[in-house]
Write a structure and sequence with these properties.
The complex is a heterodimer of chains A (about 375) and B (about 650).
Chain A: H1 2-10, H2 15-35, H3 40-61, H4 65-89, E1 91-93, E2 96-101, E3 106-107, H5 109-127, H6 134-153, H7 157-173, H8 178-197, H9 201-211, H10 222-234, H11 245-248, H12 260-293, H13 297-321, H14 339-357
Antiparallel strand pairs in A: 1-2, 2-3
Helix pairs in contact in A: 2-3, 2-12, 3-14, 4-5, 4-6, 5-6, 5-7, 5-13, 5-14, 6-7, 7-13, 10-12, 12-13, 12-14, 13-14
Chain B: H1 2-43, H2 45-56, E1 57-62, E2 69-70, E3 76-88, H3 96-104, H4 111-123, E4 130-136, H5 138-146, E5 154-163, H6 171-174, E6 176-179, H7 182-191, E7 202-206, H8 207-211, H9 213-216, E8 221-227, E9 233-240, E10 247-250, H10 254-264, E11 269-274, E12 281-287, H11 293-296, H12 301-309, H13 318-321, H14 331-340, E13 349-352, E14 355-357, E15 364-366, E16 374-377, H15 378-384, H16 387-397, H17 399-407, H18 430-437, H19 443-449, H20 460-471, E17 475-477, E18 482-486, E19 493-495, E20 500-503, H21 508-521, H22 529-532, E21 540-546, E22 569-576, E23 583-589, H23 595-612, H24 617-623
Parallel strand pairs in B: 2-10
Antiparallel strand pairs in B: 1-8, 2-3, 3-4, 3-5, 6-7, 8-9, 10-18, 11-12, 11-23, 13-16, 14-15, 17-20, 18-19, 21-22, 22-23
Helix pairs in contact in B: 10-23, 14-16, 14-17, 14-21, 15-21, 16-19
Classes of the chains: A mainly alpha (about 375), B alpha+beta (about 650).
């Protein structure tokens, strides 16, 4: 009886992926405890975030891909409208207009777009008959460009680029021609100097510092420099949990959110980093496997995009904290403190599980 | 259905190919990250480990206690006490004026404090912390501490202050410390001591405080402190205790010093007394004095102006830097030069007509006694200070022989004394005159050197040292004030060795003749008979006067008619007891007139206390709390 109930409750949960997520979340709690100066309040708050996120995951896992396919267009239109509303009536904080006040709370419509965008494009390609034509890609490109431009305007460069990439993954998986891909990247490279020459000196300077933080060690570069020191001084095995000097003595900024990877890296060293990369790789592998086994165009494109998007976040965050990518405000997925990103991620994983567990029997 | 399935399989195949590409890209980029981590954490580990350690570890200097300055009996002349100061780092304060005004609402800040702060600001860098108020009491310190958060860049510090408990007494000898300035930093860097001054604000600026800086300062300790990103200390990692500075013990007796300074009254001048056998300086007076406490935390402009612009020049260290013509106090040395050259040996005598003329020249070199001294031999010449006798002797010796001889007595050169800033004085020679004035040497100039006039210039220290060398039979000991350097920590002490600077070969018979002449000076009939009256020990002495302005050939010197500051300087040298001297001294009273009457009594008070432990009359009456009437000694010798 109980096992039957159990089976019914969790029949859409992928045990392997779930185990990986639990492990990552446990890691998150440990690192957060150290990064927050052993704050139990932070841990409790993160536990609540996780509970909410896992509930969302469960709900999403129980919604079939067919249902998702039907709401894709509505979600996209709603998202774009909210983004326009943000541009018009959004509240400004930290010099950017990202939030929309809807009376009882504030929402960040760009977060919705992280899921709505791949769903929309996956729906679009699924609704076309046969091999997508060049015109289809152009229209898909426009569907992609509109919200990206709106988010870039806020300004939120990091999120807009990541949403652009999540859309791009759909286009790529849908079969965007290699010729176009190569041509586009070559012409982009060629246009780089032209673009550069159009910039003002101060803008160039900002970009230079973005790529080389040591040029401004006390200003914009301070965060990255301290993070690199934290990572490097972690050595092979780390300074030990709660023993990172850069972390515990406040040298690391934003250490519970965007820079939490530096805390992890300082206290657990190269070994810990390899473990984390391994964990992320396993999650991505599982996601790609689910995508390759998905039965409909919509679900395989969506699963592929969600998985690769998870990779984007992980790569960009670790890249920026370790100084090989410019600093854009991107949290480390599953580890950083914060409810929104945790919920969005789990929504994605829920959809993956839904795709994996709602299969029709197909005659082979 | 079949086509549809085929189409489906085809599509899935293409999708999987694309997915494969994506997987390769994922692993390539993760490999890139892994490579980056291995670079930072394995290859560059030491580099980043060092940077992390530099981030968190701060070396905090611990300033050592400065050594004490003690007199020969252990009386404290310079010590330290703890007090609070309020310091501002201008670079960290946005509106300095407003901040000071706000602080003034909490603790009193006088206009002198503001002026001093302003002066320091001009002299220091904006990132140095500068005191706005010193010596805060507990209540004031607490009041500020409560409001500290309102004043970023303002710190309350507890530190040691230097204090000179005797105030104005012996200030030229003790000297003072002051805040380290750029010049001091440069010197410290040159001598390689800069690291030892991390955290030190003060350094010896003059007197013994300056000369013995390296002993007094001590060795700075260090604390390794773990700090957080805001620079707050989290915990002490290791600590290296400072080594307190050494105490220095003087040969001077501060009681003797007080007696000597009091004896000067409000007259200007200098006095140095030396133990001729050891070179130990017993008293070192420069009048007027100043309060060295004013300088410790920077003197305010009003006090500075008053001291600096005073006609009495209280800041000049007269024994070292005051130059005076030696006048007749030069005669014993000229006498010895003559005797050692085989001239004027007994029973040689002259008939003194009251003047001297060079052969073939009508210019008269006048004796101070117009009628002359009658028959004069060497001993009497010293006793009565016969100018005529020494004019002739100097002329006969010649300037080079004379200066070469007296140079052994320390004239015209520095003495290795343990206060910096000694100046050479001047022993004139034809060579010197040629260089200085591009003029030949005239025979008449040799003549007047015989009585210590002309270009000859000496410092009081030189005069005392020359007297000590004479008293010590020609053995020149290095004059010094510090006899002992005590290490407070180990309890060990190091004696400053007595050093022989020079050994003048003298015939004891000749020294005896000069001594007898000088002893007679303090006996009835001598130029300082009053100084020797009822002494109870024999005193060998010589008086002198030095002209401040020149007197024309047929003019008469009228003391009362001349402006006080143009009066002659009174000089006096002596050693006692004459047969086995333990004290040799020189006194100069500026514009004091006659050596015997103005400078002699000062010397007598010092010798009485030093040799007999006898306090001057006014001191006795004070100590006895009685108004005992002590008759003044008759002042019979008005001339020298």
């Amino acid at each position: 009886m109980i096992s039957k109930l159990f089976h019914h409750l969790f029949k859409h949960i992928d045990a392997f992926l779930m185990a990986c997520l639990f492990f990552a979340m446990l890691l998150s709690l440990f690192v957060l405890y150290s990064a927050s100066g052993q704050s139990v309040d932070r841990i409790s708050a993160q536990l609540i975030n996780m509970t909410v996120a896992l509930s969302v995951l469960w709900v999403a896992a129980n919604i079939s891909p067919q249902k998702l396919e039907r709401v894709a267009l509505i979600l996209y239109v709603l998202g774009v409208m909210l983004l326009i509303a943000v541009a018009l009536f959004g509240t400004i904080s930290h010099g950017a207009r990202r939030w929309l006040n809807i009376g009882f709370t504030q929402i960040q419509p760009s977060e919705l777009m992280r899921i709505a965008m791949p769903m929309m494009l996956a729906w679009y390609f699924a609704s076309r008959e046969g091999k997508p034509s060049a015109a289809n890609f152009v229209i898909a490109g426009l569907l992609l460009a509109l919200p990206v431009a709106l988010i870039m305007k806020q300004p939120d460069l990091g999120t807009s680029l990541l949403i652009a990439s999540s859309g791009f993954y759909v286009l790529f998986l849908a079969g965007l021609s290699w010729r176009f891909l190569i041509g586009a990247s070559v012409s982009l490279m060629a246009l780089m100097p032209v673009f550069w020459s159009m910039l003002h000196d101060y803008q160039r300077r900002r970009i230079e510092i973005l790529f080389d933080p040591t040029q401004d060690p006390l200003g914009a570069g301070y965060h990255t420099i301290q993070a690199i020191i934290a990572i490097g001084s972690g050595g092979a095995t780390g300074k030990g949990w709660l023993n990172g000097t850069q972390t515990q003595l406040d040298f690391l900024p934003e250490r519970t959110t965007d820079f939490i990877f530096a805390v992890f890296s300082e206290e657990f060293g190269f070994l810990g980093n390899m473990l984390l990369l391994g964990l992320f790789s396993i999650i991505i592998m599982r996601g790609l496997m689910i995508a390759s086994q998905a039965q409909s165009t919509f679900s395989r494109l969506l699963a592929g995009s969600i998985t690769l998007n998870f990779f984007s976040y992980a790569f960009v965050n670790m890249g920026m904290v370790s100084g090989i990518l410019p600093v854009v405000g991107v949290p480390l997925p599953l580890i950083s403190y914060g409810g929104t990103s945790m919920v969005t991620l789990c929504l994605g994983f829920g959809i993956l599980m839904s795709i994996h567990t709602h299969k029709n029997l197909v005659a082979t | 259905m079949g086509a549809e399935l085929k189409n489906y399989q085809h599509e899935q195949y293409y999708f999987r190919v694309r997915l494969g590409f994506a997987a390769v890209a994922v692993f390539a980029l993760f490999a890139l990250l892994a490579f980056r981590f291995s670079y930072l954490q394995l290859k560059q580990y030491n580099h980043y480990q060092t940077l992390a350690e530099n981030n968190r570890i701060s070396l905090v200097p611990i300033i050592p206690n400065r050594g004490l300055i003690l007199d020969r009996n252990g009386a404290v002349l310079a010590h330290n006490f703890f007090a609070y100061t309020l310091e501002i780092t201008p670079a960290k304060v946005e509106n300095l004026e407003q901040t000071i005004a706000e602080i003034a609402k909490l603790v009193e800040i006088s206009s002198l404090d503001r002026k001093r702060f302003k002066k320091f600001r001009e002299q220091s860098h904006s990132f140095e912390s500068i005191p706005i108020r010193t010596h805060l009491n507990e209540l004031e310190a607490a009041k500020f501490a409560v409001n500290h958060y309102r004043f970023p860049g303002v710190e309350i510090k507890s530190r040691l202050f230097r204090h000179y408990p005797l105030g104005k007494t012996a200030s030229h000898m003790i000297g003072y410390i002051g805040r380290i300035n750029d010049k001091d930093l440069e010197n410290l860097e040159k001598s390689g001591d800069l690291s030892n001054y991390k955290g030190s604000d003060h350094i010896g600026k003059s007197g013994l405080e300056q000369y013995y800086e390296k002993y007094l300062h001590g060795t700075t300790g260090f604390q390794q402190v773990e700090i957080d990103a805001d620079g707050h200390a989290v915990r002490v990692l290791s600590s290296n205790a400072p080594i307190p500075g050494d105490n220095i013990v003087l040969s001077a007796d501060i009681k003797l010093q007080e007696i000597a300074e009091k004896a000067f009254g409000d007259r200007r001048g200098a006095m140095v007394a030396i133990n001729p056998k050891t070179g130990e300086v017993l008293t070192y007076v420069s009048q007027p004095t100043f309060d060295p406490n004013l300088f410790v935390d920077g003197i305010d402009s009003e006090n500075w102006k008053a001291l600096n612009e005073s006609l009495d020049k209280p800041l000049i260290n007269r024994p070292l830097r005051g130059v005076y013509p030696p006048g007749s106090t030069f005669k014993p040395f000229v006498a010895l030069a003559g005797l050692e050259a085989g001239k004027r040996l007994p029973p040689y005598s002259i008939q003194d007509p009251g003047f001297f003329t060079l052969p073939g020249n009508r210019h008269r070199y006048r004796d101070w006694k117009p009628s002359g001294h009658g028959s004069v031999d060497m001993q009497k010449a010293i006793t009565v200070s016969c100018d005529t006798f020494f004019y002739g002797l100097a002329q006969e010796l010649g300037i080079d022989n004379l200066t070469n001889f007296v140079r052994h007595f320390g004239f015209g050169k520095r003495s290795e004394f343990d206060i910096k800033g000694e100046i050479e004085g001047l022993l004139p020679t034809p060579d010197w005159k040629k260089r200085r004035f591009k003029q030949p040497w005239y025979p008449g100039e040799t003549v007047i050197v015989g009585i210590g006039q002309g270009y000859t210039l000496v410092t009081p220290l030189q005069l005392a040292q020359a007297t000590a060398i004479l008293a010590n039979q020609g053995v020149a000991m290095r004059p010094h004030l510090v006899t002992e350097i005590q290490n407070e920590l180990s309890g060990k002490s190091q004696m400053v060795p007595h050093k022989i600077l020079d050994r003048v070969q003298l015939n004891p018979d000749n020294v005896e003749i000069v001594k007898r002449g000088m002893v007679d000076v303090t006996l009835p009939g001598g130029t300082a008979a009053s100084v020797g009256a009822n002494a109870g020990y024999s005193i060998a002495a010589k008086t002198g006067t030095a002209q401040v302005i020149g007197i024309k050939q047929n003019e008469k010197y009228n003391e009362s008619a001349i402006n006080e500051r143009h009066r002659d300087h009174a000089l006096f040298i002596a050693y006692a007891p004459a047969d086995d001297p333990t004290i040799a001294l020189a006194v100069i009273v500026e514009n004091g007139g006659h050596g015997g009457s103005a400078a002699g009594p000062i010397a007598r008070k010092v010798m009485d206390y030093y040799l007999l432990g006898k306090l001057p009359a006014e001191e006795i009456s004070k100590e006895a709390q009685a108004q005992a009437a002590v008759p003044n000694a008759p002042e019979e010798a008005l001339h020298d």
